[in-house]
Amino acid sequence: MLNKTNLARIDLNLLVLFEAVLEERHVGRAAARLHVSPSAVSHGLGRLRRMLHDPLFLRQPKGVVPTDRARQLATPVADILERTRQVIANAERFDPAKSVRRFVIGAPDAVSAVILPALLVELRRDAPGIDIGVRNLVGQFDTALKELDERTLDVALLPLNEIPNRFVSRTLFGQEDFVIVRRAGHPIGSRLTLARYCAAPHLVVSVSGDPHGMVDQHLAKRGMSRRVVLTVSNFLQAMAIVAESDLVAAMPRRFVTRYAARYKVVVAEPPIPLSSSPVLAIAPQVATTDGGLTWLLEALERSARTSFR
């Protein structure tokens, strides 16, 4: 991308700025993240545009969108910054009490909603300068692994049985399965038979809006089906809607254990066996040499253990 002569004139902070704008898709939010003014970000983008001979980001009503050239540069820039961060991290022992790093975690909200309260307690106590960004991942597991490769995610918390060798993982929950949730006084009655379950109106959590999920696969094997009346993009929203409607939903057991009393919903075992898998904290192999990522994986493990004490 740049020859040796040009490197003498390059400010590495411009690549940090590029990364922030690319991830935030907004000049103001990027400025807040970098603790600089929006005008400083705009000025830096101007320098980058002249250096790389491309607009890089185009203004839109709600922010900016990257050009094709910016998308092409995303991975090599992320690699440059990650290698630089590794050099610094290896040269100076990571100290959570002094660190001001920001980590980005991807997880289904049913997982993050269980783990985050305990993680925030630890951050407040032991790592007050560390910031966390959380992105909701529901049914986007291949995308999450790709984003770990591209370093746009630091850690992904996913229900997976196996991961590729290029990643490391820590087990947060040994097995996570699903239970059926409905409001108190639901007309389905107290005994949840398979026939009653199929006849009820259903809610499915799906980021894409696709109403077909693992429950439908299990029902199809028995020659049965259900009607999905509503899809929503996260489990907390689903819980709130189920609590005030006649919809029923399958939700992860630990999430329901933590939030069922708050929403006053009734929990039942599913009338058919549903899939279960461990929930893993997954990071690129670089985590083994990055003291900050190693600390984060360990903090997530501790938070998972303390979430149900």
Mean of pLDDT: 89
The domain tally reads 3
| Shape summary | elongated
Order of helices and strands: HHHHEEHEHEHEEEHEHEHEHEEH
CATH-derived topology of the largest domain: D-Maltodextrin-Binding Protein, domain 2
Which strand order do you get reading across the main beta sheet? 4-3-5-12-6
Counted by DSSP, the helix tally is: 12
Kindly state the number of beta strands.
Answer: 12
Q: Which CATH-level-2 architecture of the largest domain?
A: 3-Layer(aba) Sandwich
CATH superfamily of the largest domain: Periplasmic binding protein-like II
Helix content: 40-55%
Flag low-confidence runs: 1-5
Radius of gyration: 23 Å
Structural class: alpha/beta
Briefly say what this structure is.
The chain has helices at residues 4-7, 12-24, 27-34, 38-52, 68-91, 109-126, 141-149, 194-199, 214-221, 235-243, 253-263, 291-306; strands spanning 57-60, 63-66, 102-107, 131-136, 155-159, 167-176, 178-183, 201-205, 227-232, 249-252, 265-268, 277-284.
